[in-house]
Design a protein that fits this description.
CATH topology: Rossmann fold
Helix content: 55-70%
Largest sheet: 7 strands, parallel
Radius of gyration: 19 Å
Mean pLDDT: 91
Structural class: alpha/beta
Distance between the termini: 50 Å
CATH class: Alpha Beta
Strand content: 5-15%
Number of strands: 7
Shape: globular
Number of helices: 11
Low-confidence stretches: none
Order of helices and strands: EHEHEHEHEHHEHHHEHH
CATH architecture: 3-Layer(aba) Sandwich
CATH superfamily: NAD(P)-binding Rossmann-like Domain
């Protein structure tokens, strides 16, 4: 899909990857409706790109339906729905034992934002797209949805759900003119990663040399142009997935070593102040 002239909705548009994608799509000539719970942040994004800002909670189906309905009322259609918003929650640094599994509140919010929000977006926009016989749905998951995240069970599992749901959409509606992509980045320089760096050993590890959001957005634009399902801004992720598939037990042993190394690194940095 070429983005020039297309009407696009992008959730999580107030900062990070979402803001980067808003800028990249607008630069390609797309009409951008930026959506976020952060009203000030998303208004700033819209002002920067000459787009439209809408405030919504992606974890509420009614909010996403309202965004889609308002976009169609204003612009006549939705060509591309980018369900990008996400959260990273879990135990803080120093957690151990069963506490590493996280609490019920973290799980509930992670399910709502990282998985169910993609369902709500699809339910809202699919009837319109199916009626037109064309449309594009893109979602942001994470490399954690392919490889499993260390340090946050709720993040890893809900991101797996996001990848699986995107695959389901592609298999089920691909013959009806609906194209689907799934973005699975590794470490990206976003407010969420900065928060993770304060909270967890994995966040510290990934924040060492993060990719910039505009670089991720450039990869996304090309992937949408090529209509590629799996969008991997970090090429090493593809190799990690291959190794996992080739020898699952060996991959698990390697991940255990990585987890131990990250914990030791974090403890050493804490002791050094």
């Amino acid at each position: 899909m070429e983005l020039d002239g297309k009407v696009t909705i992008i959730t999580g548009g107030a900062s990070g990857i979402g803001r980067g994608i808003c800028h990249a799509f607008a630069a390609q000539g797309a009409t951008v409706v930026a959506v976020d719970l952060n009203a000030d942040g998303v208004a700033e994004t819209a002002t920067q790109i000459g787009g439209t800002a809408m405030t919504a909670n992606v974890a509420e189906a009614e909010d996403i339906q309202r965004v889609v309905d308002q976009t169609i009322a204003q612009f006549g259609r939705v060509d591309l729905m980018f369900s990008n918003a996400g959260v990273s929650l879990g135990p803080g640094r120093g957690a151990s034992g069963v506490d590493l599994l996280g609490d019920d509140a973290d799980w509930a919010k992670s399910w709502a934002v990282n998985t169910l929000a993609h369902l709500y977006a699809a339910r809202a926009v699919l009837p319109h797209m199916l009626e037109r016989g064309q449309g594009y749905i893109c979602s942001t998951a994470s490399a954690a949805g392919l490889l499993t995240s260390l340090g946050s069970a709720s993040y890893a599992i809900t991101k797996h759900g996001a990848v699986a749901f995107a695959e389901y959409l592609s298999m089920t509606y691909g013959s009806d003119g609906i194209t689907v992509s799934c973005l699975c980045p590794l470490g990206v320089d976003t407010p969420m990663l900065k928060s993770d760096a304060e909270r967890s050993a994995l966040g510290r590890f990934l924040s060492e040399a993060p990719m910039q959001p505009d670089m991720v957005a450039d990869v996304v634009v090309q992937a949408i142009r090529d209509e590629t399902f799996l969008i991997l801004p970090h090429p090493e992720v593809r190799e990690f997935v291959r190794r996992k598939a080739d020898d699952h037990d060996r991959w698990l042993r390697g991940m255990r070593r990585l987890w131990t190394n990250m914990q030791e690194m974090s403890a050493r940095r804490d002791s050094e102040g």
